[in-house]
Design brief:
The protein is α+β, with helices and mostly antiparallel strands and 229 residues long. It contains six helices and seven strands.
């Protein structure tokens, strides 16, 4: 039973270099090499945030602020020093942090790195925000909706449900934050299987989820749930 979802932003960083023949490498400026300090600064920031920012639903996680560079494109020929590099990635944040605040912090980080680097200082990289922009969202653990789903899960499965959080974003934020309708996330299987090769869900868990949701709706709307399913 997920009551907190992390936020995420997709970014595109463009680093400028100077082309030269590979045989005269020192006459050029490799955009790949100039991306190194930016990449390492992002990973250092990820470690710093994990060590200094706390949230009770996230503190047990190995990485509650994942920053991942998923695509890097650079150069146009093997024997030419690459004059540009484009890196696209995704950074995460937790409830209590905002989209605007995370954008500002990332842009400030990029400016600091550039200011400490002779080439980047004179040829500043650019950052664009595109694609998915997910706000972080949270519903209290003692909210009536949380208690309702937890109760019906126990009725269906015989086990207490785990109240948890995830580092990924979901559409629950649209209900909770924009429409003012509290929303939780409940479903079969584990999040660790998502977007992986051979992703799967056990059919028994699908049936159990359907039963829990049906009884949750009945309970929420004022009907007495049956003693057993």
């Amino acid at each position: 039973l997920v009551i907190a979802q992390g936020g995420s932003l997709v970014f595109r960083i463009t680093v400028h270099g100077k082309a030269a023949h590979g045989a005269n490498r020192n006459q050029g400026e490799s955009a790949i090499e100039h991306f190194y300090p930016i990449f390492h600064a992002l990973l250092d920031w990820e470690r710093e945030r994990n060590a200094t920012i706390s949230h009770p639903l996230y503190d047990h996680m190995e990485n509650k602020f994942p920053i991942s560079v998923g695509v890097v494109r650079a150069g146009n020929w093997a024997s030419t020093v690459p004059e540009s590099l484009v890196a696209e990635g995704r950074l995460g944040f937790i409830p209590g942090e905002t989209i605007d605040g995370m954008m500002r912090q990332t842009e400030e980080l990029l400016a600091r790195v550039s200011g400490d680097h002779p080439w980047l200082r004179d040829h500043p990289p650019t950052i664009e925000w595109f694609g998915g922009q997910f706000a972080a969202s949270e519903v209290p653990a003692d909210h009536p909706l949380t208690r309702t789903v937890a109760k019906t899960h126990q009725l269906v499965t015989g086990d207490d449900v785990e109240i948890s959080a995830i580092t990924g974003g979901t559409d629950a934020r649209l209900f909770t934050d924009i429409a003012g309708i509290p929303a939780v996330v409940y479903g079969p299987s584990e999040n660790r299987l998502a977007h992986m090769t051979d992703e799967y869900i056990e059919l028994d868990e699908v049936v159990g989820t359907a039963e829990t949701l049906a009884l949750s709706i009945l309970d929420w709307c004022g009907y007495d749930a049956p003693a057993s399913t």
